[in-house]
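Regression test case RT-17, inverse folding.

Input:
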């Protein structure tokens, strides 16, 4: 049997794109019975971005991908794999990967969408990394893009304060064995969590009908407290696990890039890894929870703010519907 030599894989380009329109806590105060103080204290969110009506997830996803591809010094034709983790695809089918491929002119790529909700980005990154590591793909782009505003009930104060729209993308490529790259990833699913966070209608089990629309079943359904408890435990556990599995210490970690669902969930992971505030990236105040876009955009923002340097050890960690959760360990290479 031929042995496959696995390549070291690194992030070589990043891009993000957010809509211009801001939905602030003050705006939400006019829409539901809530207030800025409650939202900030319970979630950490001050504002989020919202697309104009009719803008699908592919639009900002394509723009984020174009920017990531340019930063990697590639042309769209060089891309051979597109993976798009999204819970808000433009359409049920075809995949948003196909739509973005056409928009950006990545004519030599194959690709697919991947569903893991707020853990989508880490699951997609790992899926693409396996292909680049094995030589199946050379220049992959992983695009987290969401129009969460399309599945949010803006009359439900429990959920409408939480989510925002946006997109983040990374190009991954083989890099020299000695270069900084993605080291490892640990990912989990637990389907017993389905009942706590889902969208009831619009799938094959309950297709859209006038009744499902009247009963508001095409929106995010969430039992916030239960999700909160599981997220606190899941994110903190897996973040530490990926560090220890690789023979490293908490003190080796330079930066934690958590999924941005709630600053109180993030604080639990921060405490477990014994990190300072400076070592934890928070973008939820500006963008809310952008589901699959939250980790790549937070990572890029930290990079642009000069909070991570070449060779630094970074932990990406997520928790989401499913339940799904995971952590990726990497050395920063840009
Ligand atoms: C949603 C979430 C912010 C709610 O915070 P919480 O501290 O658990 O708040 P609770 O749901 O216990 O609600 C406390 C009270 O605030 C009220 N409340 C809920 N939303 C409110 C809002 N927007 N404004 C004001 N009050 C609100 C509730 O009705 C409740 O009132 P009651 O005690 O009179 O019934 C929190 O549970 C959470 O972040 N969950 C996880 C979210 C998540 O990670 N989701 C996606 C996975 S990635």
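Golden output:
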């Amino acid at each position: 049997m031929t042995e496959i030599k696995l390549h070291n894989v690194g992030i070589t380009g990043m891009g993000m794109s957010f809509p211009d329109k801001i939905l602030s806590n003050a705006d939400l105060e006019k829409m539901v019975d809530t207030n800025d103080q409650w939202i900030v204290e319970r979630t950490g969110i001050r504002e989020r971005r919202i697309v104009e009506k009719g803008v699908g997830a592919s639009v900002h996803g394509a723009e984020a991908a174009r920017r990531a591809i340019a930063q990697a010094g590639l042309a769209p034709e060089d891309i051979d794999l597109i993976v798009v983790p999204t819970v808000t695809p433009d359409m049920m089918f075809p995949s948003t990967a196909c739509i973005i491929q056409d928009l950006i002119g990545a004519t030599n790529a194959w690709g697919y969408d991947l569903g893991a909700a707020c853990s989508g980005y880490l699951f997609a990154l790992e899926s693409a990394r396996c292909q680049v590591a094995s030589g199946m793909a050379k220049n992959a782009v992983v695009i987290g893009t969401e129009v969460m505003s399309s599945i949010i009930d803006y009359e439900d104060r429990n959920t409408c304060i939480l989510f925002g729209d946006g997109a983040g993308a990374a190009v991954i490529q083989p890099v020299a064995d000695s270069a900084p790259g993605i080291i490892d990833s640990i990912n989990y699913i637990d389907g017993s969590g389905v009942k706590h966070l889902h969208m009831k209608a619009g799938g094959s089990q309950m297709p859209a009908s006038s009744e499902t629309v009247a009963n508001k079943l095409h929106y995010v359904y969430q039992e916030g407290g239960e999700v909160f408890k599981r997220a606190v435990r899941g994110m903190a556990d897996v973040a530490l696990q990926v560090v220890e599995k690789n023979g490293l210490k908490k003190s080796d970690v330079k930066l934690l890039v958590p999924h941005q669902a709630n600053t109180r969930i993030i604080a639990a992971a921060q405490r477990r890894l014994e990190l300072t505030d400076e070592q934890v990236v928070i973008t939820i105040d500006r963008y809310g929870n952008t589901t699959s876009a939250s980790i790549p955009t937070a990572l890029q923002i930290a990079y642009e703010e000069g909070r991570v340097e070449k060779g630094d050890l970074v932990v990406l960690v997520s928790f989401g519907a499913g339940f799904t959760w995971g952590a990726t360990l990497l050395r920063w290479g840009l």
